[in-house]
Amino acid sequence: MQKIASPSDLDALMLATKRGSQRDFKRLVDASSARLYGVLLAMLRDRDQARDALQVTFARVWLRAKSFDPDRGPAEVWMISIARNHAIDLMRARKRRAEVVTDDLPEIRDRAPTPERRAIIGGEVRKLMSCLEKLDPKRAQAIRMAYLEGASYEDLAERMSTPLNTIRTWLRRGLSALKDCVDG
Q1: Which tens digits make up the pLDDT trace of 144-175?
Q2: What is the DSSP-derived secondary structure letter of residue 66?
Q3: What is the 3 state secondary structure string of 71-136?
Q4: Alpha-carbon span 181 to 184, nearest angstrom
Q5: What is the pLDDT of residue 103?
Q6: What is the distance between the alpha carbons of residues 87 and 91, in angstroms, rounded to a whole number?
Q7: How buried is residue 178: exposed, middle or buried, by Cβ count under 10 Å (0-12/13-18/19+)?
Q8: Of 132, 139, 117, 122, which is closest to residue 30 (Cα–Cα)?
Q9: How far apart are CA 86 and CA 98, in angstroms?
Q10: Which residues of 109-118 are buried (b: 16+ CB within 10 A; e: fewer)?
């Protein structure tokens, strides 16, 4: 069974990628594909579109690697933000019936999870859902809406009748609590 990369492993791989290491970028892709694919699949609810979005996400990670700053947060959160933002763009484009053109992006090998990785992901998802249920219900709802439904901060503030800064605080603290629960 493949070992799950720790946040510090991902940070180290991302820093090496930032310096231009293609070998470490490939290792970063291998270590984080399953989690990013899970995020994209949960948001897009379409396997083919999630696989395509994963490819675009890693192209963007490579192209934006120099902007990664470990003092602003872990590599995994940075990459999930890139994936989440791309998924939101795709969902908005879906609504407008526009197509996203990816012809100019480099080809990345298909990273669809193997049965073994799916089992690992399934265990992680169960643990994450268990941790999510331990959060304050409003924070949990905000996290679900933001990261699974793709709602923007402004949408959340409006839908939950809550100030925008409160929504940001709920999400930041909620994600921190989830991270502690999942890692602990």
Answers
A1: 888 888 888 898 899 999 999 999 999 888 88
A2: G
A3: HHCCHHHHHHHHHHHHHHHHHHHHHHCCCCCCCCCCCCCCCCCCHHHHHHHHHHHHHHHHHHHHCC
A4: 5
A5: 56
A6: 6
A7: buried
A8: 117
A9: 14
A10: eebebeeebe
Chain-centre distance for alpha carbon 48: 17
38 and 125 Cβ atoms separated by less than 8 Å: yes
Condensed to tens digits (0 to 9), the pLDDT of residues 60-114 reads 999 999 999 999 989 999 999 999 999 999 988 877 754 445 555 566 666 677 7
Q: To which residue do tokens 């991902």 refer?
A: 10
Contacts of 142 (CB under 8 A, 6+ apart): 156, 160, 167, 170, 171, 174
Secondary structure in 3-state letters for 28-41: HHHHHHHHHHHHHH
Residue 156 token pair: 């959340």
In terms of Cβ atoms closer than 10 Å to its own Cβ (0-12, 13-18, 19+), residue 78 is buried
What is the SS3 assignment for 152?
A: coil
